Amino acid sequence: MSRWYAAAVVRLRWVLVGGWLLGGLAVAITLPGLDEAGGGGQFGGLTTADNPALRTEIRSFERFGFPVLTRTAVVQRDPAGLSSATQIGAIAAALEFNVAKPPDLRRIEFALPVTNSFRVVPGSREDGTTLVTYLYFRPDVSFRTQTRVAAAYAQRYLSDPEDHLVGVSGVIPARVAQLEAIRGRLGVVERATVVLIILVVALNFRALGAALVTVTTAGLALVVILHVAGWAGQQFGLEIPSEIEPVLVALLLGIVTDYSIFFLAGTRERLLAGDHRVEAARHSAAEFGPIVFVAGLTVAGGSLALLVAQVGAFRAFGPGMALTILLSLAVAVTFVPACLAILGRAVFWPSLRHRPAPARRRKAEAMQWAGRRLMDVVVRRRGAAVVVTVASIGLLLAAAPLRNLDLGFAVIESLPDEAEPARAADAAARGFLPGILSPIVLLVEQPGITERRAALVRLEELIEDQPGVAGVAGPREQPSPRSLGAVLSTSGDAARYVLLSGTDPLGSEAIDNLRRLRAAMPRLLAEAGVPEAAAAFAGDTALADAVVSQTEDDLVLVILLACGFGFLLLALFLRALIAPLYLMAANGLAVAASLGLTTLVFQQGPDGSGLTFYVPFAATVLLVALASDYTIFGVGYIWAEARSQPLVAAIRVAVPRSTRAITAAGITLAMSFAILAIVPLRPFREFAFVMSAGILLDVFVVRSLLIPALIRLVGPASGWPGGALRYQGDREPARTPASARVTTGAGAPPVPVSARAPAPRVQLLLGVARVVAGWAAPHLHRTVRHRKRRTSRRS
């Protein structure tokens, strides 16, 4: 099949190149972009209507007839103190607006000003310095519209210098600011990644043509994928979060570059051997096409494991990544070999020279000298054992901080300090509390509960003493049981409390505090005297808690599915069951180490807050899939060499040969993800760090050292139950001269039956025989030597 594929690509090279270029142009003209495919929704598609916090919020509105929660507010602050005229003016403006709404502000249902004067709000840090005007919108008003209309309200009523307007803040304006930051830096990410690809590929092959072919392939894939993903989002109703686009760009450009590097390396090797450009491209496609295809399927299949997630954004992220990989794979395995068959040596000008075989061999040996010296250590049992021990301990130590991992849902805190929502939220937190813009609502329901006012007041006092609760407003603050109906329902069967957090309401600490409070509620209700009452929480902290809990529940299942798919493809590709087991274990060590380092830097560093909840989730799935990808490249070389020579010699030849291409590809992919740190949001910095660290650990530690050492220690049993690996004795191997090493690849003649590895039972018997022979050999050797000496003396 690989030969048929290679022959078809080379024969149809002009059709493929022209077809892809025209197809990319047609897709860009006719199909929508990814930014038109979806987005919006509560927290941008991260929550769904069945979220318990959202259901409680709706039930609270139905019980009381008006909401307490809003996610958009205007903040005024003067550290020296707001004047009475300023505060009265803001309150009067809200009353005027509620009576007669201007036409351009009719999307605001009503405005509610709250001041920290006289510490009316429980737990306020200051007195008379800050005023927050909450703006309530209908649920059908989009995030962008809410932010724009709120800014218009502030400019109309609160724009005088004495008003000390700080800005518009809240979860919704912060969310819009996040999307604008992503959109503003997306072009920079794309351009920086393209420049990176040109530099890495041009330096690796010392040829600008190779970089241009790679960049053209990546650009073509980018255009096709973004528009096909946008069209798929519209056709199938997928709400694709906007955060996906930078990640997809980095993944796409890195993956396409990886696959292009392998085709370029294979073609260059054949051209140096004197092959014609068409024959060189055909041979490279036949050798690397199956490996690239299986590697791409591994990454795509691992991404599809996200379909089992409960969080809607993850279910959209999985197909988005899988579609990206499959389309990148289709472009890479057709467009790149076709271009190489057309351009040939021109791609590698001016570095490509036709040199005699001895000169070529001397240069190759000089370049691979360090790798061969390292392999001389790895292929010896003691050296392999030391490498496995040291590498495993190092990775485990790096993974140790993972035990203290906390997950948060940073929205406002993720923004740069100069962003308006961040500045306004900081001002509100200084005057009131950090939770003033995102309070928690506690809904307590029981028939006739409003008549039990003393018990409700007692419950409020008990809640106020719980860890993390900095302030509570409830029945204690309502003068009479029937006034206003804000905290006691007119039906008499519900009461609600407003809780203010002393920390970032969407951070890991606030989420942990809410979980402890929820667990303590049955006890608190019993102590207050209403043990039969039902309690439920609403608000941004409760929403974040539900999403983080769903993520934690999904994580184990998704990782198991991704690892299972990677194991299956490795087993089919290698036709073995033993090797995939320890290969996946080594990959898992690298992933855990990268997550541990990320936890150490971002959670235990100066910021001291938990990681964004979706970063470990998405990074783990991607790293597991990409690690399997590189495993297929590296171990595939060893398996191919082992068809014609002993396993130890195969490791010696294959690892240095594959290291250069894998290292270049891994560095390119790691730097592609590192460029995501250009986006000025904390989750992107976290994601850039964990992906770059994980890929570099995989390339330089796992792929180059740990896996070859593991294969050497396990030996030919790695290929069980298949016979892909030739049997190798336990004695330390002698160094094989470079001239005697046999290089094989796709299309190599089949190994004779007599050269295949014996069955496991025969291997066991031979192993016992080797041990006995090893014990008896010195005695036999001394006996034979003694007899020779006696014979010599007699002569």
Describe what this molecule looks like in 3D.
With 795 residues, the protein is of the alpha+beta class. It is built from 22 helices and 10 strands. It has helices spanning 2-11, 13-30, 52-64, 84-99, 143-157, 171-205, 208-235, 244-272, 277-304, 312-343, 357-367, 369-378, 381-399, 420-431, 453-464, 508-528, 540-574, 578-603, 614-641, 647-674, 682-714, 760-794; strands at 73-77, 108-115, 130-137, 165-169, 407-408, 440-445, 469-473, 494-501, 534-539, 611-612. A 4-stranded antiparallel β-sheet has the order 2-3-1-4, sandwiched between helices. Strands 7-8-6-9 form a 4-stranded antiparallel β-sheet, sandwiched between helices. It has a two-stranded parallel sheet with strand order 5-10. The radius of gyration is 33 Å and the shape is elongated. The termini are far apart. 53% of the residues are buried.
- Low-confidence residue ranges: 39-44, 727-768
Q: How much β-strand is present in the residues?
A: 5-15%
Strand order of the largest sheet: 2-3-1-4
Mean pLDDT: 82
Largest sheet: 4 strands, antiparallel
* DSSP summary: helix tally: 22
What integer value in Å does the Rg equal? 33 Å
Helix content: 55-70%
Which class do the helix and strand fractions yield? alpha+beta
Apparent shape = elongated
Set down the secondary structure blueprint.
Blueprint: H1 2-11, H2 13-30, H3 52-64, E1 73-77, H4 84-99, E2 108-115, E3 130-137, H5 143-157, E4 165-169, H6 171-205, H7 208-235, H8 244-272, H9 277-304, H10 312-343, H11 357-367, H12 369-378, H13 381-399, E5 407-408, H14 420-431, E6 440-445, H15 453-464, E7 469-473, E8 494-501, H16 508-528, E9 534-539, H17 540-574, H18 578-603, E10 611-612, H19 614-641, H20 647-674, H21 682-714, H22 760-794
Parallel strand pairs: 5-10
Antiparallel strand pairs: 1-3, 1-4, 2-3, 6-8, 6-9, 7-8
Helix pairs in contact: 1-9, 2-7, 2-10, 5-6, 6-7, 6-8, 6-20, 7-8, 7-10, 8-9, 8-10, 8-20, 9-10, 9-17, 9-19, 12-20, 13-18, 13-21, 15-16, 16-17, 17-18, 17-19, 18-19, 18-21, 19-20, 19-21, 20-21
